Predict the structure.
Amino acid sequence: MGCCCNGIFGGVKELNHELAAHQNDAAWVVKVISDTTLGKLGGILAILGVVAAPITSGDTAFRSARLIVADFMNFKQKKISSRLAVSIPIFTVGFLLTQFDFAIIWRYMAWSNQTLATIVLWAITFYLLVEKKGYWITLIPAIFMTAVIANYILIAPEGFKLPQSVGYPIGIGAALLSTLAFWVAKRKIQSA
């Protein structure tokens, strides 16, 4: 985006000014950049891509959510009425989420993604420990990420909004506690 910012708008600062003048309409930016660099036909194709990609991703996400919920609840999905019984509540939640500021939802999503990555790091660390392989390669990032995700949710405006002087020690404590739990588990595994 740096090239387009400089070549079309003059820089990031100018892009932000133009965005503010157009009510932060990202579609307007896509149109300007596409029309300028690809011409009218290319611009139309780019805008279709910007619209089509999220629609197909959303369709896949809702279908996956429906199948996961149905599987979890052991709810057969052969009849359309059964599909609707699971889909309508999911769509309702999806619609309600559109009523919130997307930036906040995105930050929760980013945090949950990092939390999932941290859980995977811990799982891999235990796997490597059990297999008697170099678990340090994932242990150190797992400890670090535990501190990061704990600190973020403790001090973030969309989290617990604790002051940094309180949130950071608790987040570091969470990392130390998880490290201690790992060493205790390691002793049990090695003594078994």
In short: The chain has two domains: 2-97, 102-191. Residues 2-97 form one domain. The CA atoms of residues 74 and 134 lie 40 Å apart. The helical segments are 2-9, 12-21, 26-72, 80-97, 102-130, 136-155, 164-191.
